[in-house]
Amino acid sequence: MPELPEVETTRRGVEPRVAGRRIRALRVHEPRLRWRVPASLPAKVEGATVSGALRRAKYLLFPLEGGASEGGAGGVPATLLVHLGMSGNLRVLPSATPRLLHDHFDLELDSGETLRFNDPRRFGSLHLIEGDPAQHPLLRHLGPEPLEAGFDGGTLWRASRKRRVAVKQFIMDAKVVVGVGNIYASEALFRAGIRPGRQAGGLTRAECDRLAAAIRTVLAKAIEVGGTTLRDYVGVDGNPGYFRQKLFVYERAGDACRKCGTPVRQRVQGQRSTYWCPACQK
Ligand SMILES: [Zn+2]
What we know:
The chain contains 7 helices and 11 strands.
């Protein structure tokens, strides 16, 4: 499943190819994605210019300028919102490239290239937001971005007081902080020296500081290695960041901890596998 680092890697890959480009056509080959793509959507974006590529949590946002959706009085700003779901990826290809199975839409640009979405499981989505994207129901309730200023130990400290939920589930809650998937939660807790089963409310301020720093580190490292796989093919299905970075505990049950040699432990927590070192994590 594409996690935050893969989505950010995609954003960085596609942005220079789409920013400043005018949309010739949006061709939806399969509207039955996680939410059905309205038949009226393509006409609203044709002729608009993509002004950039942004990311919020695991959503990609393409702000548009001009086009039919801005035709009304006052000109409502519009944004295309894409989610990669469980198995989606975006590629920038010459428009004439033959479609593959599971290629569901093409955003054809005046450069002669197309932004093509492929998603075998169809849990991905495409929306047009007219108005402020931050107020969209899918985005409105999201917590802070882990890699932006404003997310730190204080964020975790304030949100965790009196919370009895296990710290691993706490940091995977998008209302607390977005984009910390199962792999990154285990890895961040290892780096911070905190056992995943502890109550969030029992963390000290110093532990919150260490944990926030660890979350930032694991995500930033994954983006770094994800970025090195980018060429013409902007994929999230080829070499996701977490397969290329050295994992300390994730999927290493029974193996020696890379720091101290103690066998790594595993248990199921909130229906997800959790891994930790009983010696390095308190
Ligand atoms: Zn250890």
